[in-house]
Structure formats: C-alpha cells, structure tokens
Amino acid sequence: MTMPGFRNLRELSDAQDAGRYLYASFRKQATQTTAAGVWFDLSMSPGNPAPNYYIGSPGVFVPLKQSTDGGIRHGGNVNAQGQKKFLRKLMAMTPTATATPLSCKLLDYIGFYGFIDESVLDEQFMDNTTAPTRYADGAGVQLMPVVVAGQTGGQPFTVNYTNQDGVAGRISRSHVMSTQFVNGTILHSMQANASYPNNGPFLSLQAGDSGVRSVESVTIGGAGDVGLFALVLVKPLATFALFGIDAPTEVDYFTDMASMPEIKDDAYLNLIALPNGTLSGAPIHGVIETTWN
Amino acid sequence: MAGFTSQDDIINSLTVSGRGYRADWQKSTFTPTAHTAGMWYSLFRGGGNPGADTILGTGTNLAFQALTDATTNATGIPHGGNVGGFKVLLNAAAQTAAATTAPCVLMLVDLLGFYPITTVTTTGDQALNNTVTLPRYTDGAGVQAFLTPSTVMGAGTPSIRLTYTDSGGTAGNLTPATLPIGNTAAPVTQIVYSGTGAGKFGPFVPLATGDAGIRSVQQFSLSASYVSGVLNLVLCKPLMTLPITTLGVTAERDLVNQFASMPKVYDGACLAWLMLAGAATPVASPISGHLEFGWGA
Question: In angstroms, rounded to a whole number, what is the distance separating the alpha carbons of residues A181 and A203?
Fold first, then answer.
C-alpha cells in the first residue's frame, strides 16, 4: 500500500493532472479600525469566508471545523481515502495602499474557549468536555487570545494549560491586555511598550514548551477589565506578506518555501495579519491551491 | 544521519513521512535596553515566545556551561526535538511593525554554551574552567564567541582579549590586535564591543589569522577594570542571516532553492537571534517570524 503524500515531484505533478487539486478564493475586508503593529484576526472580518464570531458558552471548548463553520475552503476530506492534503500555493493582493505592507499567517483554527470575562479575578476554569478534532497531541499548537468585546487594557493575565507532552499545570508567562480594543484584536499585541515584553501573536508558553493540548484555566490579574476574549487554539501553517499594491504576492510552498504544510481533514483555515495602520475597508483578495495524494 | 539526497527526498520526507517542523516565534527587544543604531544585541533575554532566558550570568564564575534545547532556564526556539542527528533549516521569515525597529539584520545562532564572568574588575588573564566541553560542533569548526552582559556593565572601556584553542586543536591563540574595546555602561543584551570605530567589531570576537573556529577558551583578559556588571562569554555557531529592510515588510528566506544552504540544526540546538540594530530601537519592540525544518531518513 502506498503511503499518503508525495514521494517525488512527478507524483506532485501527476496529482494536479489527475484533478487532486483545488483552487479556492477568499476575500476578506475588515470593517474594524486596526492599529499599526497590533496583530489582528481576519476571521472576524466580513467577506468570503463569512466572519467567525467565536460563539459558544463561556469557557467551553468549541471545535472549529470547515464542515460546520466554514473558513477558507480547501476541499473535502481525503484521509479516509488513504491520502493527505497539502497547501501548494497561495496568492494574495490588495488594491488599498494603506493596507500594505502587511504580514500574514495562515492558521488552522482548531477551536476556542469563548467569552472569557476580564472582570472576573477568580481563576476561571475551562470546560474540555469536547476534545479538539485536530492536533490532539498539541504539538505546535499555539494560544491566541482574541478580543470579542473591547477592553480598556493594561491588566495582566496568565493561562494554565496542558503542554504537548501531556504535562498539566503549565503556566504561561504573564501577558498584558493591550489598549487596542476593536473586536478581532489579538489581546496582548502591541506595537512596542515596556509593559508588553510578551507581545503577540501567540502567548508565551512556560519555558521548554512548544505546544498546547488543552487549557485548564485563565486568571485575570490586576484590577480586571471590562471586556471579553476568546482563547483560540491554532496551528500556524504558512506565512506570506503583501508588499505593495502593484503586484500580487505569490508563494509556491514547495519551490519557494520547501515546506508544503499539511492541511488536516476538516481544518478551519483563516488568516491573522500584522497591519501598519487601519485595514478598515481594505479588501484582501487571494486564492489558495491545495493538492492531495 | 538525517540529510536529503534529492528534491524528491525532500518532498517525500515532508509529505509522506512527516519529517518537518514549524516554529512560530516572537521576541521583543529586552525591556530595559533601547537599541542603538550600529550595535549588536542578543534577543535571547527578550520576552516573547519563547520567553526570556534566565540562565546567562548564573553558575560558577569562569566555568563553561553547555546549552541545549532542554537546559533549564535556557529558552531556545523549539525545533522539534531530537531526530538522531540533525535537521536542516528549510525556510525562515521575520517581520516587525514596531516603529524604528527596521532596518535591522537578524542572525540565527545555535548557542553552545557560555562562561559567566563576575570578576569584571580583575585585569589581566583569568583562567577559564573547561571541565564541561562543547555539546555540539565539538571540534570548534565555525564556532564563534561574543560577549554580552547579564547585569549592566560599569563605566569602563577595557580592551578584551581571549586566549583560545582553535578548531584545529592548536592552543594559545590570541585575539589579534586591534583588540575589541568594551562599551562603557554596556546594557544587558548588548554585544559589548559592537559599534563603530577602532576596536569595535560585530558580532563576534575576531580570531587569529587563519583560524576557523573556537574549540575552547583558556584565558579571558580585560586591560582595565570594567568597574561593575556581569559578562557572559558565549560560544555559538552562526546559522543564517535575515535582514529586515522595512517596517512591516516580511523578510523571507528559502534556504533550499533561493539560498541553497540548508543550514544544519543539530539535536539539542539552542536557537536564538542576534540583532544588528539599524536604527534607534525602543525597548520591548516585537519581532516575529517562523522557522521551518525538515530531516531525512
């Protein structure tokens, strides 16, 4: 039996000829006024795919899946056919000068703990009744806190989690909530400030940890705040950047990056971005190309 | 060993065998230390993901301590654990949107170990303890040295000289003249002799003519008291450079097809960034990016 994946370049070409290849477009257009140097979650912006609002019960883990939640389309499940799917190419562009340059990451959004209340100073325990459907061992999985109801900022918080080796009780470093409050902001991301040494896009884990399997609790410090955030488990897949409005960015993840990240069955894909100003009203168009074998 | 024999082997290893690993990292410039244009700094102690190291400056004075990805309080960028030899770096990217952080040049290094030096008021040769040896690159080929404080230095400008054994095993080599000169009141994370002018080098201590690396350092000498502070003589293997030209513009390196180098990352590597500041950079300015690794059967 042939192992899933591509054994050589010929198989990569043959898969495309055989139709095991998908072109899927996206168009995200933020309505939020983003800030320079503050990471922003484009999954919460209008466009195609439709925005994601991190709806769920407070503190309860909710898996995100293409089949139920959408995200950037990448094709159907292939694992049951003895195949694996990979990101082959990505093209992106914007006609809005103020949106460039713009660094972006394509993430697999595994799931989230919704509506964590920044006003509660007691330890807030998370509900892990429902398990992640992808990257269950936590290898390479990162924590991304996303603002879903704006805060004032300046208050610290930590996360108690189980790491990629299954060790529970790991504590993230202390992070500070930023003063940028629009929905979709990565909560602890700031352009620069002495109070923000553990800046975004992902939380700084305890020394020696490289991934997160689950979150057990969140503790808000200081005086607390008024907002809410979703704590999202993500697996970073790819990086690209928009450099200007005069040409699209095109990345072949084999010949340009030698990586071809795997896209798991039913993955929920979306983007985060590091703007240099506001993205409000700036359409970001693109196409991803996936292939499987 | 874990290299690749062909492009087909790369694609087979990554897609069939899953022999790949991606690390998304973020490091901020050290909170108390604003960067000065033209000087080199270590981001090892900066906050972020992974977090700041707390190991430099600890341990027995003048005794070498090895660093690995599993060393307590050393916070190297993860690279996916041991694979029975080495991985190769396939690609890398970095960006910053922090005001005046660009331009800068990042250098990825494998930190091999360090000699903590608390006796910074002592002048002349001080014997270093090499009971512990290099954990990787054991012959010293390509290994370089830099000096960085873990406690801010005093108001001194001593010349610095090393007596070392080179990668060929020849002992007694000396740092050649002109000797590196330490910066007065060098802050934590600065490479103390970097800058512009006579006696300024970056990022590494110059080696004697013909030498290609350091196996161990036997003597450390200051020409005058550094008054106060704690220095760390760090041995490392440089792996790649990544220039960030413009605020917000991602720097990208394909190390297979663009820069055909595929630097080796050995099991246990403790990866960190050095940074040449091209502009006055505020404290806690974040830089983020990723590294992707692969390995053969």
Answer: 18
ipTM of the complex: 0.89
Task: Please give the angle made by the CA atoms of B110, B157 and B119, to the nearest 5 degrees.
Answer: 65
Per-residue model confidence as pLDDT tens digits over A232-270? 999 999 999 999 999 999 999 999 998 999 999 999 999
* Selected residues 41-80 of chain B with any CB under 8 Å from a CB in chain A: 46-52, 70, 72-73, 75, 78, 80
Number of structural domains in chain B:
1
Where do the domains of chain A lie?
A: 45-278+287-292
Residue numbers of chain B with a pLDDT score lower than 50: none
Instruction: Tell me the shortest Cα–Cα distance from A102 to chain B, in angstroms.
Output: 6
Q: Each residue of B216-231: pLDDT tens digit?
A: 999 999 999 999 999 9
Q: Which two tokens stand for residue B32?
A: 């108390």
B-facing residues of A in 43-82 (CB < 8 A) are none
Answer whether residue B115 is part of any domain: yes
Q: Which of B8, B70, B248 sits opposite A276 (nearest CB)?
A: B248
- Structural contact between residues A105 and A195, judged by C-beta atoms closer than 8 angstroms: no
AA letter at A23: Y
Neighbours of B123 (CB within 10 A): 14
pTM of the model: 0.93
Would you say how long chain A is, in residues? 293
- Residue B1 counted as domain residue: no
